[in-house]
Design goal:
323 residues, Uracil-DNA Glycosylase, subunit E, 36% helix, elongated, EC 3.2.2.27, UDG_Type-4/5
Length: 323
């Protein structure tokens, strides 16, 4: 008789103990095979009940001489006994815990509960709720969807939303960064000093402002004309992309790094992006310097003019007077 067994214990008790251990082992194997990160709540309850039963079968403290070996040791004279392979894991109905439903990614909390983990949403979520997938929206639809926008913190300091202006079927679209002080007051993009320079650039290309369309990455003025922040760009980006979907221009001119980097998903500096034809969803895109930067760095106007001349060639325009 093994020294760890209680004295005068009926043989059935040892067999029952083995069955309990085997059942728990099977359940743990099933958990591992099905990818369960933790025991489910009902399995935990079962383990607690079985643990209480086991404790009632153990001898008092001091009566255990040693930890039982994992496998019984056979006497050398005894003939070897054929090992019975462990039974295959039973189907979910054979154990008390039901298998978890297959769901999108889950995680375990400290109390053992399984919770759904939402997948990280892409930065650009796609068409706006009021725009049907695959259909060409109108600028009026997009403006109604924008409403009295409160989607980011820029709403707290603005006077007006600056949506965009120009021909709703323009072949040429200029995309800037964000409204300045004058734009915020009037609700129209590029009407300040930078706007005056942009108007001259457009006219030198052989266009008028009524022929083209102008909008910005963000529709509300950042405080103190600071750069727009990532969360602000993310909140406004669906509206910018929907505007371009509505207009479907032949060419987009991205004015400055924020317009170019947002549309191209490219963090390359504007000094290296400018002057190189790129594509935005099949539309030719020319990155160049922002007019506000050109006002601070007049020597860079020559490079911007070279960029715009490439755009003019697409439309068969002749060079006008330089700005």
């Amino acid at each position: 008789m093994n020294s760890w067994a209680p004295v005068n214990e009926p043989p059935e008790s040892a067999e029952e103990l083995g069955e309990v251990v085997e059942e728990l082992r099977r359940h743990l194997l099933w958990q591992e095979e099905t990818g369960g990160p933790v025991l489910l709540a009902d399995a935990t309850k079962l383990a607690a009940e079985r643990s209480a039963s086991l404790r009632s079968m153990l001898p008092p403290r001091g009566a255990v001489a040693k930890v039982p070996p994992t496998e019984p040791v056979q006497a050398p004279s005894s003939p070897p006994r054929a090992e019975t392979p462990p039974p295959a894991a039973p189907p979910p109905a054979a154990v008390s815990a039901s298998p978890p439903a297959i769901r999108a990614p889950v995680t375990a909390t400290s109390n053992g509960m399984l919770l759904d983990v939402p997948q990280q949403a892409p930065r650009y979520p796609g068409p706006l709720p009021g725009v049907v997938e695959g259909e060409r929206p109108t600028l009026d639809q997009i403006r109604r969807e924008l409403g009295d926008c409160r989607r980011c913190k820029l709403c707290t300091g603005r006077k007006n939303i600056v949506f965009g202006v120009g021909n709703p079927r323009a072949d040429l679209v200029f995309v800037g960064e964000g409204p300045g002080e004058n734009e915020d007051i009037q609700g129209v993009p590029f009407v300040g000093a930078a706007g005056e320079l942009l108007t001259k650039m457009i006219q030198a290309m052989g266009f008028s402002r009524d022929e083209i369309y102008i909008c910005n990455v963000v529709k509300c003025r950042p405080p103190g004309n600071r750069n727009p922040e990532a969360d602000e760009i993310a909140a406004c980006e669906p509206f910018l992309r929907s505007q371009l979907l509505a207009i479907q221009p032949k060419v987009i001119v991205a004015l400055g790094k924020f317009a170019a980097q947002t549309l191209l998903r490219d963090t390359t500096p504007i000094t290296r992006l400018r002057g190189q034809w790129r594509e935005y969803q099949g539309v030719k895109l020319m990155p160049t310097f922002h007019p506000a930067y050109l006002l601070r760095s007049p020597a860079e106007k020559r490079k911007a003019w070279e960029d715009l001349q490439q755009v003019m060639k697409i439309f068969g325009k002749q060079a006008g007077a330089r700005t």
